[in-house]
Amino acid sequence: MWEKQLEYFHDSHCLVPDLPGHGFSSRMNFSIHSSAEEIGSLIQAKAQGKQVILVGFSLGAQIAIKILSL
User: Fold this and answer.
1) Calculated CA dihedral for residues 19, 21, 26, 29, nearest 10 degrees
2) Contact 36/30 with Cβ under 8 angstroms?
3) CB 34 within 8 A of CB 20
4) Which residues of 11-34 are buried (b: 16+ CB within 10 A; e: fewer)?
5) Measuring CA to CA, which residue among 18, 23, 19, 70 is closest to residue 44?
6) pLDDT in tens, 10-32
């Protein structure tokens, strides 16, 4: 669902994680809290002090809010 946005932001480094319990990770257990922790860690590892813009839609927005609260 993010393909058009990735094309538009081709000059940016975009991370589009496959959430646990969804897509190719459908056999994994899902929780908003654990997803927020994992994605937050991924962002910290990849950002290396650079500006980060966090975007989420629907369930992804709930995870984004949880990331910000952590």
Assistant:
1) 120
2) no
3) yes
4) eeeeeeeebbeeeeeeeeeeeeee
5) 70
6) 999 999 988 888 777 778 889 99
User: What are 59's two structure tokens?
Assistant: 């369930």
* CA within 13 Å, CB half, 32: 14
Average pLDDT over residues 30-35: 95
For the stretch 7-16, contacts whose Cβ atoms lie closer than 8 Å and that sit 24 or more positions apart, written own/partner, are: 13/46, 15/42, 15/43, 15/46
Structure tokens at 18: 């496959």
> Which residue's structure tokens are 């538009």?
8
